[in-house]
């Protein structure tokens, strides 16, 4: 999907928007709309894949894309700036990585999942941004971005679980499982938690991770 004259499509998707701990991540995958090549078999929105399948597909998706990047905004930044601003901040960081690798981002169509363009207000220089509901399901570039971002963020949370054990981050990835809420009550919040979000934690029902996409 692109526009007339576009030399590439940058598929974009976010991960970690609803977590209680850890960064929010924005993944980007660059695709040539004229010669896209064959995308990896089984590639789809990361919510529809098992963790093992995502781990298998992430390097294949990154290799299929002309370039890929993941930008992050920390829990502290989410507390100070708000989640929407941090989506834009993480995306700007991902775009910076792509630009530094030689991607001509100004000629691209940037494709966002959903109906809300949260990226354009964060940019100093306007890009051609297009939104599409269910793009993570219907557009391979966005599905690839979702898988690359999900695996990147999950690995960060798994590593963090080894540094600060007790919160179950290797399994809940920072989302609000019942065990995670219990750990916060017992151990207290850390610098990796979104403290402004935890103020309402008693009134928030724990998430059933088995039936939640954890985006």
Automatic annotation (TrEMBL):
Question: GO molecular function, one example?
Answer: RNA-DNA hybrid ribonuclease activity
- Cofactor binding comment, as recorded: Manganese or magnesium. Binds 1 divalent metal ion per monomer in the absence of substrate. May bind a second metal ion after substrate binding.
Q: What EC number is given for this enzyme?
A: 3.1.26.4
| Signal sequence region | none
Q: According to its UniProt record, which reaction does this protein catalyse?
A: Endonucleolytic cleavage to 5'-phosphomonoester
- Where the protein is mainly located, per its record? cytoplasm
GO cellular component terms, alphabetically, are: cytoplasm; ribonuclease H2 complex
Sorted alphabetically, the keyword list is: Cytoplasm, Endonuclease, Hydrolase, Manganese, Metal-binding, Nuclease
| InterPro entries from the UniProt entry | RNase_HII, RNase_HII/HIII, RNase_HII/HIII_dom, RNaseH-like_sf, RNaseH_sf
Protein family per UniProt: Belongs to the RNase HII family.
The protein's job, in short, is: Endonuclease that specifically degrades the RNA of RNA-DNA hybrids.
- PANTHER family, sorted: RIBONUCLEASE H2 SUBUNIT A, RIBONUCLEASE HII
Protein name as it appears in the record: Ribonuclease HII
Gene name, please?
Answer: rnhB
């Amino acid at each position: 999907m692109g526009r007339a004259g576009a030399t590439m499509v940058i598929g974009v998707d976010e991960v970690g928007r609803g977590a209680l701990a850890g960064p929010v991540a924005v993944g980007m995958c660059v695709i040539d709309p004229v010669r896209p090549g064959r995308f990896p078999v089984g590639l789809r929105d990361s919510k529809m894949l098992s963790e093992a399948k995502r781990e298998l597909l992430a390097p294949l998706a990154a290799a299929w894309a002309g370039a890929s990047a993941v930008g992050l905004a920390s829990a502290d930044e989410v507390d100070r700036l708000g989640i929407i601003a941090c989506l834009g901040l993480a995306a700007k960081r991902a775009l910076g990585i792509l630009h530094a690798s030689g991607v001509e981002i100004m000629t691209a169509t940037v494709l966002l999942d959903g109906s809300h363009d949260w990226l354009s207000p964060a940019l100093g220089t306007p890009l051609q941004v297009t939104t599409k509901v269910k793009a993570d399901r219907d557009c391979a570039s966005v599905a690839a971005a979702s898988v690359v971002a999900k695996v990147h963020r999950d690995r960060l949370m798994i590593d963090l679980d080894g540094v600060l054990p007790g919160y179950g981050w290797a399994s809940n990835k920072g989302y609000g499982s019942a065990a995670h809420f219990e750990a916060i009550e017992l151990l207290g919040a850390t610098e990796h938690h979104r403290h402004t979000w935890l103020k309402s934690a008693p009134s928030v029902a724990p998430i059933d991770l088995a039936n939640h996409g954890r985006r």
